[in-house]
Design goal:
The strands form two sheets. A four-stranded antiparallel beta sheet has the order 1-2-3-4. Strands 5-6-7-8 form a four-stranded antiparallel beta sheet. It folds into two domains: 167 residues, no CATH class; 148 residues, no CATH class. Helix 1 packs across helix 5 and helix 1 packs across helix 8. It is of the alpha+beta class and 334 residues long. It has eleven helices and eight strands.
Length: 334
């Protein structure tokens, strides 16, 4: 999730266990503890752009790192709060603030190393967008009300409502997936793998990408009181062995392509019109688009150099209008 929601979730959860006389201090501790897991964004390398992708939502988000993360927050606060909170209470509040950092990120589609070091699988449940204003608003109301009234009752209600909202988005995802499977059956496609993910800021409009016969099919599904499918584009899956059979598998380029494939769960295709770019087809500005939000640039003349990471996030007025038309369930020029 976005860093604001991470902080507010940490504070809200911390409020649920705080003593009445500790509510305000516990809220502050929870706010900080909720974002500490994201210090991994500082793990990066100028020479190796993929390092930041690999280590974002890595070990600091693992369930096994929670006690250590809480310990770091404890050490940060102890010099300032040692005369106001006992060590036991302070650690409890640090622990609760840090507790759901990995879980809520795993609810999105980016991928989180939730069970490192037992395995390196990036867990993605795809049930909520990285930014979801309604989910955040529920927590904001709960935390502010609890803070003003020195009561944990409101934060407990907020956590319950936030959990209910996640169940709702899970249901929405299942509805969207069923519609796409029906569409694939009409196309006479066998789905080899599929991802259904919410578009930014809502749980109504979902992006679908499924693989069939070495081709990715991209569509959008609106799931509300009325349901509608917006058929999108298609693009071939990238296969390094087929595309570059002579590329040395021990070269840095080949290694980086494999790293990018692992990060992208192998939802990789060549960027439309730019064969030297490989994109993560899971993400695009439009839910029906095949132009990825980020890609790696390959230099086939220097195969022992690291790839470059490129972002494409420019949204024109026309694209914005098309997105909102789909969000509202309107007809578009398909």
């Amino acid at each position: 999730m976005d860093i604001v929601t991470q902080a507010i979730l940490g504070a809200t959860l911390t409020q649920t266990v705080a003593k009445k006389t500790h509510i305000r201090l516990a809220t502050i501790v929870g706010l900080i503890a909720g974002v500490i897991a994201d210090v991994d964004i500082f793990i990066r390398s100028e020479s190796d752009p993929l390092l930041s992708l690999e280590f974002h939502r890595h070990f600091t988000h693992s369930v096994f790192f929670i006690p250590f993360g809480a310990g770091l927050v404890f050490l940060l606060f102890w010099p300032f709060l040692r005369n106001k909170l006992s060590a036991a209470y302070l650690f409890l509040y640090c622990f609760m603030g840090y507790l759901l950092s990995g879980f809520i990120d795993a609810c999105t589609s980016y991928g989180t190393n939730l069970f490192w070091p037992l395995n390196s699988i990036r867990v993605s449940w795809h049930i909520i967008s990285v930014v979801d204003p309604l989910f955040t608003l529920i927590l904001i109301v709960a935390i502010i009300t609890g803070y003003k009234n020195n009561s944990s009752v409101f934060s407990r209600i907020g956590i319950l409502l936030a959990g209910s909202y996640l169940l709702f988005t899970f249901s929405q995802m299942n509805h969207a997936e069923n519609l796409i499977k029906e569409l694939a059956a009409k196309r006479d496609h066998t789905i080899e793998k599929i991802i259904i993910k919410p578009t930014i800021g809502n749980a109504l409009l979902w992006r679908s990408v499924y693989l069939s016969n070495e081709t990715f099919y991209v569509d959008a599904v609106r799931v509300g009181l009325s349901k509608r499918i917006y058929q999108g584009g298609t693009i071939k899956k990238f296969d390094m062995k087929k595309k570059y059979p002579e590329l040395d598998v021990n070269s840095q380029l080949a290694k980086d392509i494999k790293r990018f494939g692992k990060f992208s769960d192998n939802y990789v295709s060549q960027y439309p019109g730019k064969p030297n770019l490989l994109g993560d087809i899971r993400y695009s500005i439009l839910p029906t688009g095949t132009t990825p939000l980020w890609a790696i640039e390959m230099d086939l003349d220097n195969t022992n150099e690291h790839v470059k990471l490129i972002n494409y996030r420019n949204m024109s007025k026309e694209v914005k209008q098309q997105f909102f038309d789909m969000l509202l369930g309107k007809s578009i020029n398909e």
